[in-house]
Amino acid sequence: MWSKPLKSCLALLALAALTEPARAWDVALLPPVGDEPAAAALRAQCAEIGLTCVGLSAAQLVERGKLTPSAFPMAVLLGGERYADTVNDDGDAVAVLTAYVDAGGSLLVLADGPVLSRPQRWTGNAWDAATAPLRKVALATRLGLLDAGQSLESPPPAGCHFAPTPGTPFATRLGDKLTPRADSGPYRPIPGNQDASVEFAPLLTLVDAQGGTYGAAIAETRRKGADAAGSVFYLWAPLLRGEAGRDVLFALLTRRFERRADDADRAQAKTISDQLDALAARLADAQRVLPADLRGGEVDAVRADAKKQSDTLRWLRNALAVGNLDFAASRVAKLREPIGALQARAGMAVDAVVTDAVAAAIASPFPPNV
Fold it and tell me: 87, 114, 135, 360: least surrounded by Cβ within 10 Å?
């Protein structure tokens, strides 16, 4: 069930709440949101790395200057079969979406069915079906989503698994052990035969035991020759709702950062990574002071605090990997003092336990170890 990845991040969400939040950027949820389970999973998984999912209303979607790459480096269309075509004027929502991607925004489209197949018009209080066949085809072509989400003529055979493209974050995060769930419904990939003007990069492909392929479950498309343009990511929605959803999302966000980072971003990321390495080394020094078999009093308290700081460092590395740089930098600064104090605390805790043990032995009427 998709609820498992939600439960797995509760501890880290609680940890994030211990200090005042600091966000570098937000993720836009585009209307209409057609997959609430995936939306819940997305919100929880983004919160784990310091990102907030902001749901846009119909009016906000077409508000001038609202949906921009600077405000929302990534926008998500959940339930990608239904999409906003018109809010006020014919095709105004489609124009906003294409302008967002052309300006460098990253669009993530999740779907269980044919992508961009059901254009919607805002009536003032609800979304209703719209008739826009030419705009529908033009949008799918421009975004590199032609025939995405269509079911295969025949289902893949049993024993298939998802193979990540080597050299991508999906290979690091997922390996080759991920398989389709029995309750995921028909497999709906994105085909690689997109318009000639579109660059297509499969990131996670379904393959059988003999090496036969059945299309990409995750892929990135980008217009050729448009250096400033952003990427469109297709994601078969059951992958986000499943137990591997957290790793799938982190891999995708890491891919986005690797593609969009400039020299200044990389330099800042390197600086933060070095700081995290230094803090991890100091934390390891403090943990080595505590003998593994020593228990009691302040020793247990120091060990628990060290575990908490170790979890925080892991959490910040995830935030750093996906490009939430300002968020990670703000948290690193707050860790120096508590981690720096742990080594002294560890030494004093060990001394206290040993002193108490010696005092107890002296006070005993029996010889030690008798």
Answer: 360
pLDDT tens column, 319-337: 899 998 988 998 898 898 8
Ramachandran angles phi, psi of 177, nearest 5°: -100, -5
Q: Taking the alpha carbons of 43, 75, 203, 258 in that order, is the dihedral positive or negative?
A: negative
Q: How far is CA 272 from CA 6, 322, 325, in A?
A: 28, 13, 8
pLDDT tens profile 118-174: 999 999 999 999 988 899 999 999 999 999 999 888 888 888 999 999 999 999 999
Burial 122-131 (b: 16+ CB within 10 A, else e): beeeebeebe
Buried b (16+ CB within 10 A) or exposed e, 40-55: ebbbbbbbbbbbebee
* Distance separating alpha carbons of residues 175 and 162, to the nearest angstrom: 9
Cα distance between residue 200 and residue 144, in whole Å: 8
Buried b (16+ CB within 10 A) or exposed e, 203-214: bbbbeeeeeeeb
Cβ neighbors of 124 (< 8 A, separation 6 or more) are: none
- Evaluate whether 28 touches 54 at the Cβ level (below 8 Å): yes
Average pLDDT score over the chain = 86
